[in-house]
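Model: You mentioned two targets. I'll fold them one after the other.
Researcher: Yes, keep them separate.
Model: Target one:
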Amino acid sequence: MTASANLSVAHRATMPDPHITTFMQGWSLEATLPQETEVAALKMILPPGALVYLSAVPTRDPVAQLHAAVRVAAAGLVPVPHLAVRHFSSAGDLDAFLARMAEEAGVTRVLVIAGDRDPPAGAFRSALEAIDAGLLQRHGIGEIGIAGYPDGHSRIAPQELDRALMEKVEIATQLGLCVHIVTQFCFEPETIVGWISRLRDFGVELPVKIGLAGPTNIAALLRYARRCGVRASAQGLARQSGLARHMFAMSAPDGLVRVLADAHAGGRLGQVAPHFFSFGGVTATARWASAVAAGRFTLDAGGGFQVAPPTG
């Protein structure tokens, strides 16, 4: 190979992959009750109008989630609170919560989930019941997210998951709500691609936000995987990160993003975008994802990429 050819190969290796930057457009972030300092940092990192999903914490008063939504909205970002319907003691409590979210934080979209509380605090047992109750539209909610589970659910059979998803899509559409799907995080790209492909085969062309764990260490990923019922082993995570002997080293989802970006470029996924769970910290996750979306990375021979450190 000539010197000029060597230079050409080196130049291509340092160029961002357009498939990755295209795939990253419209990415979103999930946070657990971000505090004022975190929201201030997000305001500096994210573009105005970026979506910040706000987890519902079973052990915390829903008012804490409301306050987080107010902070996010005041920063020029768009709060998308999780509406965990099993946490509400009555339809009246849910109605009052939605009224405050709309009035104080300008919320117009929510992610409707059942929630992990068992038994439920009130009459709502499933997301479908809350969607069908008519409360969302009453408070100006025009779009909802519903949950998808590429890796399955620890307590629900696959056939039941499929049935529930299709019912939620049908009812929400009949009620005039826009719908998108937000998936639980998963560590295997083949599982994600297969699940979305099957969804498309069913005729569901809704936008899908693909849940991915943002940069964090493997030990923390295992802990969250067990808590969330994701079927992931230490060996599987080690295959993704190449850090089998370094459980507390940082692991980023670059390999996953690269494979999914290629599948997206090949037309296999339809309308999708990454959705990052901020297990390693909300600001660190936002910085990493923003850098990737801006093309500040270089591909590596291991099938992933390295993100350039922030400047300034």
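Model: Target two:
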Amino acid sequence: MHFKVLNKISAGRALFAAALIVLTLGLSLIPLRVDAAERIAVLVSSSEAPFEETLAAFQAHLAKKGVVAEYAVYRLARDASQAERAVKLVKESGARLIFTLGSVGTDVAIRQAPEIPVVASLVLRADYLKDAQNATGIGLEFPLETQFRWMQTVLPEATNIGVLYNPRDNGKRVEEARRVARAMGLHLEAVEVRTPQDILFALKSLSQTIDVLWGLADTLTLSPQMAKHILLFTFRNDIPFVGPSEAWTRAGALYSLDWDYKDLGAQCGDMAIQILSGKTARSIPPASPRTVRYSLNLNTARQMRIRVPGDVVKNAWTVYRGNP
């Protein structure tokens, strides 16, 4: 396991002072002592860009708020065994806080270090953090009200929403979505699927009854193997698809809600500051991202003869236009 070495950074004024120190190679950690510095362990589940961007924003936010900290960053490469070894070292190091990025590090930290507060990020849903004695954080999934409100904004004439779901992953989520949609004047037609073969039949059953297909995050229905079938269905039937991420917009979804990773880092930083100031993690409710950005595929809109409101186009974070 390799740990990134960050130079100690100091500024003249305490308001902007920060010491960012990550030491050693292998599994021995000997942190450099910094007077008045807070020891923060960081478990990074993946090396992908969003993880690095969120971490950098978290550190920058604490520095901006005057928090002097030394960071021990453990890069886990999505390996639970590495996470377990890292948490053992964290417990020995006397860290006051664990900041986790991704589910691998989060799950192990909550389970094996209950005495250390955890701020979690880049996990899909924050619901399970509510049951943890030592954790809070930000779940990536936007509230259902937010997702449906965006459908009404981008597709104001669409009232019948179709969704495929695996009951093992999303049974309770779909029941909640039905209630929320009904309260907003929308109808949710949810079709349960249990195998990849079920998905093709389910799509066919929805083709004549829905105005939009909602991509609810699900390990079965939105697997890479099913992406081609879902997008092909939407184009053949002129039914726009709302994707779960920008990668789906790029592939042909009409739009997707996405995350501002810099703001996610800052949002987690605010939680960390509360904990370092004396609050317990359990007393800070898990939250959803406070900032929404979105991607839009105008080529898809043109092919499906959808008129996207001008302000929606203007304010999109990323717009895919295709050939004019």
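Researcher: Noted. Anything on target two?
Model: Residues 1-35 have pLDDT under 50 and may be disordered.
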